[in-house]
Each structure stands twice: as C-alpha cells, then as structure tokens.
Design brief:
Shape: elongated
Strand content: 5-15%
Number of strands: 2
Number of domains: 1
Oligomer: single chain
Distance between the termini: 45 Å
Structural class: alpha+beta
Radius of gyration: 24 Å
Helix content: 25-40%
Length: 76
C-alpha cells in the first residue's frame, strides 16, 4: 500500500510528519520531492522559460499540405 506523506529533513534524518503504517525494519522505496525549496522552483521556472524560448525559435516547413484524415488512415 502506497502512502504519500510529508517529512522534515533534520540532521541527516527524514522525520515523517504523521504516523507510518509499516512493520519494524520494513524496506521501503522513497521518492523525495522538496516542497518549499525556492532554488528548485527557480530552476524549474528558468527551465520552462528556456523551453518556451526554444520552441519560439523553431521553424517548421511543409512541402505539401497536411494530409487529410482519410489519407492518414489509408497509410500502409
């Protein structure tokens, strides 16, 4: 059963905010996603801006018109 909870990282230890439903010494898989790290959100924002700028610089050219729906479905 997957559990999605928040934790606080203190002195090298992740401390869950609420009780976990686990048996003692049970192995688990963690995916860590910072919730309040301004640096991460700044990096994400900068990455989105770079992506949008790159898309705006792209030029797409077609030699012919777009295929019709029937032409798309008739392809071998």
């Amino acid at each position: 059963m997957a559990q999605f909870i928040e934790a606080i990282y203190t002195n090298g230890v992740l401390k869950p905010i609420e009780e976990l439903v686990l048996r003692e010494a049970q192995r688990v898989r963690l995916i860590v996603e910072p919730l309040d790290d301004d640096a991460v959100s700044g990096d994400r924002s900068a990455a989105v801006q770079r992506l949008q700028a790159g898309i705006e610089r792209m030029n797409f050219f077609l030699r012919e018109g777009l295929p019709s729906r029937d032409e798309l479905h008739d392809r071998p």
